[in-house]
């Protein structure tokens, strides 16, 4: 598919760059390369750590030191009230966040402190900066879960996704792909049972094969894995996960995207409020999360209207960014809300100077930027902003939702997952850079056994070039 909007949009941005001030940004980032879900617990690999670090380096050059520098964001020494970093309680996602932050704010050089008795103390790790990663409940354990809705804890979302398995589309694909998956059994039967290798488990099968092609020097029945077979495996996994994450007739299926939308609005609004008061806080928010949230948000924001590849699972280390900017002069405080705009950028896979994020129009529009007023209005149409709202939409009545259930809360209607806590804004604690580096490297060492990387390039998303979309005929 040749995308005809991104290039003109970028040209317009380049011509206006000098008159533009970026006020803040919100980033949603996928983890790097990892071991397969079918061999839980999953672990980040050395490749995955490097991908996160490289992405952090790029966004340092974009938002801290380059021409797109965020207004009054500290360049070298982190100011913790300017940056908020969150991740679900998940080994792969948390360590990915740490890797990203090491690239974003690298060591500031060795510092020597002289004590009262004359002793000199040298800072370890060349003055490495410690940035906390706040943990959130929503999405916890997502990388150990094969079931896409398992980490949401939302009863109605789980029910909605399960409805896909009784749809005519699913039944047709399950039947028509039976022989295709049968040929894959010798490749994966060391890990997956033969009756498991069907379209019903399309992503888990793809994930295991994907990891093996990147990290294993030998694969059983590898001759089966032709380029066409690998493409088909990836395409079927994309179709499977898209249908579990989004359905226009059943919006609750996209609860993860709804929560993200609420967090984006809350964060960017705090950036505006802080700047209007003349403060320099709340400049950059970075959240690490799973691919399900990407897919849910893509559907809610009608991004497939901009590029059909938005219906596919993003590659490792992919990122979407919401930039808050103005073309009005900023002096002392931020301009009025009607003079502030938002643009959406996406990059599939690790972002580098050679492969930068691309602007895409939101909400099925044609413009690369929308006013803050329009952005806020359209996001509020599907954003979930409070725990009470989450509980009402999900039909959950116990745990954190009991307070809104009227009475003792009763049963949770069979909700799956790790409870009904719901809103990821509920901070469960602080982890991250304060974790001993020895533990990090121990985890990374374990992760060297296997990892995951894309089989089929979807670099047309966020790579600023034309891409072919393979028709999903199976």
Question: What does this molecule look like?
Answer:
By secondary structure, the chain is an alpha/beta fold. It has a domain at 6-159 and 244-386 and 423-447: Phosphoglycerate mutase-like (Rossmann fold). The protein is built from 14 helices and eleven strands. The chain has helices at residues 6-16, 46-63, 91-104, 155-163, 168-176, 178-182, 185-188, 202-215, 227-245, 255-276, 291-300, 372-379, 387-394, 437-447; strands at residues 21-29, 83-88, 112-114, 120-122, 132-136, 284-288, 319-326, 340-347, 358-360, 370-371, 427-432. The strands form two sheets. Strands 1, 2, 5, 6, 7, 8, 9, 10 and 11 form a nine-stranded mixed sheet that branches. Strands 3-4 form a two-stranded antiparallel ribbon. A hairpin with a 5-residue loop joins strand 3 and strand 4. Helix 2 (46-63) packs across helix 3 (91-104), helix 8 crosses helix 9 and helix 10 (255-276) crosses helix 11 (291-300). This is Phosphoglycerate mutase-like protein. InterPro entries: His_Pase_clade-2 (IPR000560), His_PPase_superfam (IPR029033), Histidine_acid_phosphatase (IPR050645).
Keywords:
disordered C terminus, nine-stranded mixed sheet, two-stranded antiparallel ribbon, disordered N terminus, 12% strand, Rossmann fold, alpha/beta, transmembrane, 474 residues, globular, Histidine_acid_phosphatase
């Amino acid at each position: 598919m040749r995308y005809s909007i991104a290039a003109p949009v970028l040209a317009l941005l380049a011509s206006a760059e000098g008159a533009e001030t970026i006020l803040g940004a919100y980033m949603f980032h996928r983890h790097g390369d990892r071991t397969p879900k079918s061999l839980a617990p999953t672990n980040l690999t050395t490749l995955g750590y490097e991908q996160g670090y490289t992405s952090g380096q790029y966004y340092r050059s974009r938002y801290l030191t380059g021409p797109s520098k965020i207004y009054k964001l500290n360049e070298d020494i982190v100011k913790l009230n300017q940056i908020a970093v969150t991740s679900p309680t998940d080994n792969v996602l948390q360590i990915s966040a740490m890797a990203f932050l090491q690239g974003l704010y690298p060591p500031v050089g060795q510092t020597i402190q002289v004590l009262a008795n004359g002793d000199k103390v040298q800072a370890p790790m060349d003055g490495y900066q410690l940035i906390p990663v706040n943990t959130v409940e929503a999405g916890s354990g997502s990388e150990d879960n094969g079931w896409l809705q398992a980490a949401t804890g939302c009863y109605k979302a789980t029910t909605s996704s399960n409805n896909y398995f009784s749809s005519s589309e699913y039944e047709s694909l399950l039947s028509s792909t039976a022989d295709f998956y049968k040929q894959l059994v010798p490749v994966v039967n060391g890990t997956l049972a033969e009756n498991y290798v069907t379209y019903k488990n399309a992503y888990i099968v793809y994930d295991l094969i994907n990891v093996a092609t990147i990290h294993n020097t030998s694969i059983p029945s590898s001759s089966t894995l032709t380029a066409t077979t690998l493409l088909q495996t990836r395409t079927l996994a994309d179709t499977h996960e898209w249908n579990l994450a989004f359905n226009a007739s059943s919006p609750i299926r996209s609860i993860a995207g709804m929560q993200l939308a609420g967090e984006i609005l809350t964060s960017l609004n705090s950036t505006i409020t802080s700047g209007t008061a003349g403060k320099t806080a709340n400049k950059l928010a970075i959240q690490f999360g799973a691919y399900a949230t990407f897919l849910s948000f893509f559907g809610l924001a009608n991004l497939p209207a901009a590029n059909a590849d938005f219906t596919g699972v993003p590659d490792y280390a992919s990122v979407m960014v919401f930039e808050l900017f103005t073309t009005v002069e900023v002096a002392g405080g931020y301009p009025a809300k009607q003079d502030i705009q938002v643009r959406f950028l996406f990059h599939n896979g690790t972002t580098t100077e050679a492969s930068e994020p691309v602007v895409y129009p939101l909400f099925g529009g044609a413009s690369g930027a929308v006013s803050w007023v329009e952005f806020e209005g359209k996001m509020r149409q599907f954003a979930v902003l409070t725990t009470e709202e989450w509980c009402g939409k999900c039909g959950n009545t116990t745990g954190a939702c009991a307070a809104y259930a009227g009475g003792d809360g009763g049963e949770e209607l069979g909700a799956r997952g790790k409870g009904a806590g719901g809103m990821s804004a509920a901070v469960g604690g602080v982890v991250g850079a304060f974790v001993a580096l020895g533990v990090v490297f121990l985890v990374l060492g374990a992760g060297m056994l296997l990892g995951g990387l894309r089989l089929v390039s979807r670099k047309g998303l966020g790579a600023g070039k034309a891409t072919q979309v393979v028709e999903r005929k199976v």
